[in-house]
Amino acid sequence: MSATVVDGNAQGAALRARVAEAVRGLRARGVTPGLAVVLVGEDPASRVYVKNKSARTVEAGMRSFDHKLPADASEAEILDLVRRLNADEAVDGILVQLPLPPHIAPAKVLLAIDPAKDVDGFHPVNAGRLATGQKALVPCTPLGCVILAKSVHPSLAGMEAVVVGRSNIVGKPVAQLLLAESCTVTIAHSRTRDLPAVCRRADLLVAAVGRPEMIRGGWIKPGATVIDVGINRVPNPAAGDGKTKLVGDVAFAEAAEVAGAITPVPGGVGPMTIACLLRNTLQAACDRRSLPVPEMPA
Ligand SMILES: Nc1nc2c(c(=O)[nH]1)N[C@@H](CN(C=O)c1ccc(C(=O)N[C@@H](CCC(=O)O)C(=O)O)cc1)CN2
Fold this sequence. Notes:
Function: Catalyzes the oxidation of 5,10-methylenetetrahydrofolate to 5,10-methenyltetrahydrofolate and then the hydrolysis of 5,10-methenyltetrahydrofolate to 10-formyltetrahydrofolate.
Strand order of the largest sheet: 1-11-8-7-5-6
Largest sheet: 6 strands, parallel
Protein name: Bifunctional protein FolD
Keywords: Amino-acid biosynthesis, Histidine biosynthesis, Hydrolase, Methionine biosynthesis, Multifunctional enzyme, NADP, One-carbon metabolism, Oxidoreductase, Purine biosynthesis
Structural class: alpha/beta
Number of domains: 2
Bound molecules: ligand LMY7XDAE
Radius of gyration: 19 Å
CATH class of the largest domain: Alpha Beta
InterPro entries: Aminoacid_DH-like_N_sf, NAD(P)-bd_dom_sf, THF_DH/CycHdrlase, THF_DH/CycHdrlase_cat_dom, THF_DH/CycHdrlase_CS, THF_DH/CycHdrlase_NAD-bd_dom
Distance between the termini: 28 Å
CATH superfamily of the largest domain: NAD(P)-binding Rossmann-like Domain
Shape: globular
Strand content: 15-25%
Number of helices: 10
CATH topology of the largest domain: Rossmann fold
Helix content: 25-40%
Order of helices and strands: EHEHEHEHHHEHEHEEEEHEH
């Protein structure tokens, strides 16, 4: 392996420590930021993520408000909870864990969140602000990708960036953030012609397709920086007993032979997601009180 492995665990911990330090300063002024997390249903992975979010929120010195609703909760019940959280002065950030059960329209729920408390950055107001270069709450995983990329290249200006994936929660916002960093950005997707050739153009390749190890070593430009957003659980026959393992959207071992720097899975982008959520909650808490937002990466 020749690539530098970019350590998301270490960078996530460093960012959380900086948030915690800023929170100590705010608390000294009588302000304790609060994050409300809404979980609907029993999805096992979501339960783990929500538990981790609450623990990290408390560790950073913030208040955590957990709301768990049954899988058969109605859209009206969820919307009513969101309205109450919008009106609650102790709550600076609101996050509705995705995916939602199939009978709930996520767009409707996300639209109900006050954009000033939208620490996921999924509300169309924040998406529009990001797209038009205005101050916004920015989606956490894309923000984490850019922080990791900038830890390798402090200036991304002029780089050829290819984002594989066009989702509203990762592909589109990460492309907007890279454009704001003055990259030349291509968004590729399932209907892109000759995807390997498009990827090989990239100085900075962001993989967010949700398909295990789809991006092969031969698709990578030598020396490129590869940011792997995928978190895919697959069978691990070598471990026996029906065991599974996590892999990204990039075939790590092959890609690491060619890339200059690469994020691993696990331990790359994932840990940055929660760190950026805390950063966004701090930003929302400051903005809502017209206090200056402490300097943070990206
Ligand atoms: N409302 C939201 N829902 C979801 C988001 C989100 O940002 N907002 N993102 C994902 C899940 N997610 C946070 O919610 C998340 C996913 C993964 C990780 C993480 O640290 N992963 C670890 C591996 C964890 C494991 O062992 O399973 C890693 O990559 O190292 C954190 C947060 C979907 N829903």
